[in-house]
Amino acid sequence: MIRGPKPRARAGDLADMPVAPDALPRCPGHLTDVARKEWRRLATPLHVMGVLSTTDRAALAAYCQA
C-alpha cells in the first residue's frame, strides 16, 4: 500500500485554535487553610513557567485540597 505525505498544518489552521487566557488563576474560596497554602506555593511558579492557566484552576484546586 502506498501512503501519501503526512498532513501539515496550514497557516489558517493555527489562527483558529483557541488560546488560554494569560492570567494567574485566583485561589478558590472553598479551599482549606492548608490547601490555600499549597496553592500559594505552586500557582505563581507554575504560571511563570507557562504550564498553568485559568483553565487549570479546578485541577490545581483538587490537587491542593487532596
TrEMBL record:
Pfam families associated with the record: Terminase_4 (PF05119)
UniProt cross-references to InterPro entries, sorted A to Z: Phage_term_ssu_P27
Protein name, entry field: Phage terminase, small subunit
Naturally occurring in which organism (per UniProt): Roseobacter litoralis (strain ATCC 49566 / DSM 6996 / JCM 21268 / NBRC 15278 / OCh 149)
UniProt lineage: Bacteria, Pseudomonadati, Pseudomonadota, Alphaproteobacteria, Rhodobacterales
